[in-house]
Amino acid sequence: MNPAGGRLGTVALLVPAALIAVLVFVVPLARLLGISFSAPAGPFDAYTHVLGDDIYRQVFGNTLLVAFAVTTIALLIAFPVAFALTRLRGGWRTLVFACVLLPLWISVLVRTFSWMLVLERNGPVNRLLVSSGLVDAPLSLLFNHAGVLIGMVHVLLPYSVLPIYAALVRVDPSLLRASEGLGATAVTTFLRVLLPLSSRGVATAATFTFLLSLGFFVTPALLGGASSMTLSMLIDSFVSDRLDWPLAAAASVVLLAAALAIVAVASRFIRVSNLARVHR
User: Fold this and answer.
1) Which residues of 66-96 are buried (b: 16+ CB within 10 A; e: fewer)?
2) What would the 3-class secondary structure string for 84-121 be?
3) Do 198 and 167 contact (CB within 8 A), yes or no?
């Protein structure tokens, strides 16, 4: 086969995908960047407001704090679930996998509204707590950080379980048995054998969950309050309430820059292509 003809065929196959990527990603992104510099007061006025205002910095810090908390809680829940999946067989394994994957088939909006019904002051959670005597009065679980964390962890948990499971399933069980045979305790085996061997999966899960948490909008908007405002909610406020497109674009660029910085740091420890495989 002619090498030149093969290269030409490869280029011809890549051209449609490249055109689509340019039209649906590069061009809108360039337009967004241009709008962020189009403020009447000057090209950098929008960035000065976003990065210089104490309130906006507080919102950005709150976004990072929520993302970090959601990622930490999700990892603490996901690791034992993923480990259990590697040990279960037959119907039990199918059942647990279904519990992990089925929520992905339900709209995030539907799941968030369901949490609103569950966490309200007269909802089943508060009724159970009050009837059991654990609390004297219903707890405030909505329109604060607690509601946001519960809702976001529930939505993003599958994205933590799957990469950790993919790493754990490749760990040779004989290594764990050898560690136990040499007299290591379960904690030592976990810290010295299992965790290091699955560290890439944990890092992939943490990166993926953190990135999704940064740009989350529906769940914080419905379950959170003014004290739980995130950067995505602030961008929506710039567009819908203030009609300030340069400010919204500048905040979007800042959020994108933060996500790219996290990916750049994560790429030193994991392959970025792992994120794409997990998403598929």
Assistant:
1) bbebbbebbbeebbebbbebbeeeeeeeeeb
2) HHHHCCHHHHHHHHHHHHHHHHCCHHHHHHHHHHHHCC
3) yes
Place of tokens 């030149």: 4
Q: Is the dihedral of CA 171, 174, 175, 176 positive or negative?
A: positive
What single string gives the DSSP state of each residue in 156-188? HHHHHHHHHHHHHTTS-HHHHHHHHHTT--HHH
Helix (H, G, I), strand (E, B) or coil at 215: coil
**CA–CA separation, 190 vs 166, rounded Å?**
17
Return the HEC string of 27-87.
Answer: HHHHHHHHHHCCCCCCCCHHHHHHHHCHHHHHHHHHHHHHHHHHHHHHHHHHHHHHHHHHH
- 145 in Cβ contact with 228 (< 8 Å): yes
- Give the distance from CA 197 to its chain's centroid: 23
Q: Using an 8 Å Cβ cutoff, are 126 and 139 in contact? A: yes
pTM, entire model: 0.84
User: Going from the N-terminus, what domains does the chain have, and what CATH number goes with each?
Assistant: 55-279 (1.10.3720.10)
SS3 of 227, please? helix
pLDDT band at 164 (very low <50, low <70, confident <90, very high): very high
CB 113 within 8 A of CB 222: yes
Give the 3-state secondary structure of residue 20: helix
**How many residues can be counted in the chain?**
280
Residues 208 and 37: their CA atoms lie apart, in Å, by 30
**Residue 153 scores a pLDDT above 70:** yes
